[in-house]
Amino acid sequence: MSDSTAVTQTGNLPVHYAAAACYLPVMSIGFFASIAFLVMEPKENTEIRFHAVQSLLYQAVFIGGTILGSVVLTMLQVIGVIVISMISDSLVGLFSLLMMLVWLVFTLLIMVGAAGLLGLTVLAAMEKSPRVPVLAGQAAKFSGYTL
């Protein structure tokens, strides 16, 4: 938990508000805020640098997973329709229905990832110093923050 009187050198913001800004999932504000704090904050302010790095890692995994999942599902759908249409035209509709359900689940997972980012924003604003299990260790190493 951070000291509520601590402020950033960049913008003189309380640290917990700056950390929350790093996680904001609205129109890339969190992405740009994370980069700004990472570049402009001194290395001694390890807490805000930790949140900036953790946010960037989370967003990279989230966006990378979304792109990879979309490419894989699209390829699976195209190849599946071609192969199944060679076997039996009547199975194409069933396969399309199955793929529609898979896309629905994928879309729900994307929504969960976005909600996770929103949850990190709220926790940071409440001075809870959120930690994403796998990413927090990497962020701490890069920022010099002690978990």
Task: Name the features.
single chain; 147 residues; mainly alpha; 75% helix; 0% strand; elongated
Folded structure, characterized:
The chain is mainly alpha-helical. The chain contains five helices and no strands. Helix 2 packs antiparallel against helix 3 (46-87) and helix 3 crosses helix 5. The longest helix has 42 residues, at 46-87. The mean pLDDT is 90.
Describe this structure in a few short sentences.
With 147 residues, the protein is mainly alpha-helical. It is built from 5 helices and no strands.
Strand-and-helix sequence, N→C? HHHHH
CA-atom Rg in angstroms? 20 Å
Distance between the termini: 11 Å
Sheet of most strands:
none
Number of helices: 5
How many strand segments? 0
Structural class: mainly alpha
Percentage of residues in helical conformation: over 70%
**Overall pLDDT metric:** 90
Strand content: under 5%
Query: What best-fitting shape do the alpha-carbon axes yield?
Result: elongated
Instruction: Give start-end ranges of low-pLDDT stretches.
Output: none
Write the topology of this structure.
Layout (H helix, E strand, L loop, with lengths): L14 H9 L5 H12 L5 H42 L2 H36 L7 H11 L4
Helix pairs in contact: 1-2, 1-3, 1-4, 2-3, 3-4, 3-5
